[in-house]
Specification:
Catalyzes phosphorolysis of the pyrimidine nucleosides uridine, thymidine and 2'-deoxyuridine with the formation of the corresponding pyrimidine base and ribose-1-phosphate. With 431 residues, the protein is α/β, with parallel strands linked by helices. The chain contains 16 helices and twelve strands. The structure holds uracil and calcium ion (CA). The site of calcium ion has 8 residues, from helix 11.
């Protein structure tokens, strides 16, 4: 097989066989195919697409390009949840202990943040002592003993995707639905999940900008997952505004604790209930999503989910006292609010721009190598459609640098739109 012929085949609208896809992925992983040829192929795929069968074959070829986790020693059906990335998406911090408290094993690999999107692993690292790198042995033992473990991705997981993603990033070929679907699903499959619950984000703060494309991506990933024997379901949720009220690492840990205590932001809780119900159902812990939702509610009101969060933190070396004393989390030196001068409504919140402001405060990375400040970020005083009362904060900035604080206090006013007229709450869950 020659890469030249394969590029021409896709350029002319052809369909690859499984052998051809296996050849491309294994050769590229071993550096036998130069980036310029792979770039040309990616662009041909971008324009001519792939059939669902090609996409499934590409997914499996990438999944097997490196380590594939064997979680068969963990009792029960392991269901993973994945979000396609958004701003202030705090769901994993809530869902992992919540679902584990209901009896479904959670063996999760999560990522770090990049750009305007945060990462669960960074958020967990704001808990003093928390270890996010466990050996495979510890990972499996923790799940068997505590029902939960969340770790960073092992370094040799889907190397083909790592290389391809970096190349797509610089060749304007990221936003191709078959390439996104195979990239995401390959990682989930390599990390050993029996079942997969997907949260495809759509809107200004997400990859997918329109609902139709997001549904297409969601349906394609469901088809791939199910076709390779992983029970998969997907939802499409709103990422025009940030999820929840907190944007920033330790701020989001506090937000998760609030939700686990039965308070917290309703949109965050609603997304967690929908995703959690599917996780419990696929795991076979609940017979349907109605029963699952009752179980989730009970775990919240009884305090079992919060106890599981403490157990999870302790099991990975973290200081579980943070749950009752949030002052043990990293604290920003400067905290200042933009307050309402009269009763008003939040008319709009621009997720992408607010995520970028939080990043520039230090909460996120502009390149993979950047270090981050776990204590900084933005707390919103309300979501679109909420009332903020006179004197209450519309938003609060947490910073460790006076200049950045002043800058952010000004900047957020461009991206948090207020009005004195009634504003309807936007739809949160589209599918
Ligand atoms: N997230 C991924 O992991 N891969 C993509 O291609 C896009 C989003
Ligand atoms: Ca949040």
């Amino acid at each position: 097989m020659r890469m030249y012929d394969l590029i021409m085949k896709k350029r002319d609208g052809g369909t690859f066989t499984k052998d051809e896809i296996d050849f491309i992925i294994s050769s590229y992983t071993k550096d036998y195919i130069p980036d310029y040829q792979m770039s040309a192929l990616l662009m041909a795929i971008y324009f001519n697409g792939m059939t669902n069968e090609e996409t499934a074959n590409l997914t499996m070829a990438m999944a097997h390009s490196g380590d594939v986790l064997d979680l068969s020693e963990i009792k029960g059906i392991k269901v993973d949840k994945h979000s396609t990335g958004g701003v202030a998406d705090t769901t994993t911090l809530v869902l992992a202990p919540l679902v584990a408290a209901c009896g479904a094993p959670v063996a999760k690999m999560s990522g770090r943040g990049l750009g305007h999107t945060g990462g669960t692993i960074d958020k967990l690292e704001s808990i003093p002592g928390m270890r996010v790198e466990l050996s495979e042995r510890e990972f499996i033992d923790n799940v068997n003993k505590h029902g939960i473990a969340v770790v960073g991705q092992s370094s040799n997981l889907t190397p083909a995707d790592k290389k391809l993603y970096a190349l797509r990033d610089v060749t304007a070929t990221v936003d191709s639905i078959p390439l996104i679907a195979s990239s995401i699903m390959s990682k989930k499959i390599a990390s050993g999940a029996d079942g997969i619950v997907l949260d495809v984000k759509v809107g200004r703060g997400a990859f997918m900008k329109d609902i139709e494309s997001a549904k297409k991506l969601a349906n394609l990933m469901v088809e791939i997952g199910n076709s390779v024997g992983r029970k998969t379901v997907a939802h499409v949720t709103n990422m025009d505004e940030p999820l929840g009220l907190a944007i920033g690492n330790s701020l989001e840990v506090v937000e998760a604790i609030d939700v686990l205590k039965g308070n917290g932001s309703k949109d965050l809780l609603d997304v967690c209930m929908v995703l959690g119900a599917d996780m419990l159902t696929i795991a076979g812990v609940a017979k349907d999503t109605d029963e699952a939702k009752e179980m989730l509610k009970e775990a919240l009101t009884s305090g079992k989910a919060l106890d599981k969060f403490k157990e999870f933190i302790s099991a990975q070396g973290g200081d579980a006292r943070i749950v009752d004393d949030i002052s043990l989390l990293p604290q920003a030196k400067f905290v200042e609010s933009w307050c309402a001068e009269e009763d008003l409504y939040i008319k709009d919140l621009y997720a992408l721009d607010l995520g970028l402001i939080a990043m520039k405060l230090g909460a996120g990375r502009s390149t993979k190598e950047d270090s981050i400040d776990l204590s900084v970020g933005i707390m919103l005083g309300g979501k679109i459609g909420d009332i903020v009362r006179k004197g209450d904060p519309i938003a609060t900035i947490y910073a460790n640098d006076r200049d950045k604080l002043e800058w952010a206090l000004n900047e957020i006013k461009k991206f948090i739109i207020i009005t004195d007229e009634y504003v309807e709450r936007p739809q949160l869950i589209y599918m």
